[in-house]
Amino acid sequence: MAALVESHRQSPFCLPPELVTDIFSYLNTSEMLISLSVCKEWKNTLTRFVHGPLWRNLEVPNNSGRGWPGPSFGVVENMLSWAGDGGANRIVMGRREMARETLTLLLNASPNLEHLEYTLQEEDFLLPSDEHRWKRLKYVAIHRSERAFLFNSPDIPGGFPRTFLQNAASSLEHLALDGIPIHWHKLHSSGLEPKAPFLPKLKTLRMKETLATGFALPLFNLSDAFPGLEQLFLSQYAGTMFLGPAPSSRRREDVWPNLKVLFRGNSLQHIRLDFGDPSWSCMFRDLRSQLPTSDVTQVSEFQSLRSFRSCGLPMSPVGAQNLISHGIQTGQLSSFDIAFPQSSPDHQKSINHLQGYEWLRGAPSIVTLGCYDFFFPSYPKDNEDLCLPQFLATFPNLQTLSIRSSRYRLPSFTHLMKEILKLTHLKTIYTYHYNDHPRVRFLRQAAEERGVELIMGERPQQWPMPPSS
Where in this chain does the record put each F-box domain (predicted)? Predict the structure, then answer.
């Protein structure tokens, strides 16, 4: 009897089946397959119909590099049988041998699919165009597709899967693409239709490009194809953006009324600009002079702004005030980046630039700040030379700092960081990708002593942004 009790203590399968499913749901596909090899009891139990949900989240990774090569075609067939009717809810597919056959198998067996993420194969491949087969599909992401979308027409092998996405229009809410389909850049009288799918329920669109194509991207045409868009992400090289001709059936003010990220309107909540062109620094400078009243916060298009992120846009303090002053007054703005002018080696220019942000000092809503390309005296002699640490110390709720400047050598930069640690109550600092230099180890130790996590890298970008009222 004692041995039986001990056996039940060690086996998770003495628990109710729904609890067993919940426990194993935290494992990924490779970990689940490893679990089958523990013993015959584990394999027989985990592949029972009652545990079918465990096999509906299928990840089939690249098998061309190091690490786990992923399940074979035969194992994928088995996993689909264990998933039960409806097949997989989530499919993540990398580059691999028999990729076309594997992905076709997964799609055909998964009418209840909700999430599809795949890497475009080197061989020509096109998603199936079966009419309205995937009625629950909400998320599609296509990786490594930039060159294929640039040189191929839609709906041919290797091209943009327009018909597949159009057939999912009744449910599709999120679309992420590496690259922009070439035909989206082209203007014609009927807008993007029918060259782009009409996706009325699409909420987020993310497009990344690493090649500077020089093609223009007409935003009004995008609004025809995706009228309900709430979040739009365009990478640094995602074409030249311009409005294009206004849709004849709508006013400009009615275009994308629900957009909260990266565009205009009082509902705008988050902005990220990665432009490196200094001519953009004046984009908000003259806003106040264009208004009939000096109270820009009452009519600003940025009344709901919660975050502004741009490490390469040295915006003037006056322009920044026009942009975020309402968010500071209402306590909504929690994240802001300050990029310093890059044209002068003079310390005084950075000092003057920071002094221009006097109106921002001590804002209680600020939780995250970024400071980029500043140039202060390497070894401060007085309080003015310490203006950056003192400025950061005024924010009572500041928790996260992103900081870097190419004008500093490592010794002077670590000295500055030590001063910042002394005067602030930070929790996390993101900075350079330094190697394991002795000075960096010393700085990391100093940060740990003050309870600060020092991360060598860029502050991650969340996408999609969390919804807020």
Answer: 15-58
What's the topology of domain 301-468?
3.80.10
pLDDT digit string (tens) for 59-77? 887 665 555 667 888 888 8
Please answer whether residues 75 and 110 qualify as being in contact, where contact means their C-beta atoms are separated by less than 8 angstroms. Answer: no
Find the helix or strand (DSSP H, E) in which 119 lies: strand 115-119
The region, left, alpha or beta by phi > 0 then psi within -120 to 50, assigned to residue 144 is left
Q: Indicate the SS3 state at residue 444.
A: helix
Q: Say which amino acid occupies 374.
A: F
- Nearest alpha-carbon partner for 70 in 37, 24, 102, 116: 102
Question: For the chain, what are the domain ranges?
Answer: 301-468
DSSP 240-281: EEE--SPPTTS-GGGSSTT--BSS-STT--EEE-----GGGG
CB 222 within 8 A of CB 181: no
Pick the closest to residue 409 from 432, 393, 391 (CA basis).
Answer: 432
- pTM here? 0.59
Q: What are phi and psi of 287, to 5 degrees?
A: -60, -45
d(CA 152, CA 178): 14
Instruction: Look up residue 404 and give its amino acid.
Output: R
For 264-315, the pLDDT digits (tens) are: 335 567 777 665 444 444 444 444 333 333 344 444 556 778 888 888 778 8
